[in-house]
Predict the 3D structure of the following.
Amino acid sequence: MLVSRFGPRYPERIVCLTEETTETLYLLGEERRIVGISGYTVRPPRARREKPRVSAFLSARIDKILELEPDLVLGFSDLQADIARDLAKAGLNIMIFNQRSVGEILSMIQVLASLVGTPEKGAALVERLETGLGEVSEAAKGFATRPRVYFEEWDEPMISGIRWVSELIEIAGGEDIFSELSQSRAASGRVVSNPSLVIQRKPDVMLASWCGKKFRPERVAARPGWQEVPAVRDQQLFEIKSAEILQPGPAALTDGVRRIHSILRDFLSRGGRTRRSAGA
């Protein structure tokens, strides 16, 4: 610990209100600084055994957080603005990240590493993640074609993928059919206004991660007119765990993108577009 005559130079007691900062600090080898985590944290698994859970996503136990005497609280997005306000009023230092793209996720990692005084570790982690993304992108160049992908983040209303998800689909070798909606920073801007739009855009593969709710492919198949959708007709409906793809941190850039790539690779290896073009 670097300490000046006035006290610690970097935060030593950190509360993480979302999973991605917890996972990042563990990957940096700085987990000793974490004194509280989100109840939704699953990565790394040991964090749930080692750290007290003090928040959900839209709510937090302010009294419990105050008891931990953190010198920094880390949150994510405007959705935690009310929590941030209450903690700031209580006199705590709080930083809200708002990363929505692959580039912004990598930037968040570097900024967090600098906050705890380990910029070199952050640079090394970013380099490893970029190398992994490059390997996936290179492998995708071997695809004969790019499958059209519909990613659904929620079912009622239908919400398509956020920007980092859309970018990871492209890196993995697919084509996001709603890439234009992914640019919206708010979920309201990614609502698919008419289910017939999916029918019209003819996705080959559907990926779903319903924010922690179990994916029900039979409900998708029962949507009016959706038997015309190639992904439904050919039973190419797949769930990706929310912790692997909807967490804007290392997990999405490792397990998430590789899971997408694996699904698309397997789809093409089974004939994929060939069956569709033949009218099967």
The longest strand covers residues 148-155. The chain has a mean pLDDT of 94.
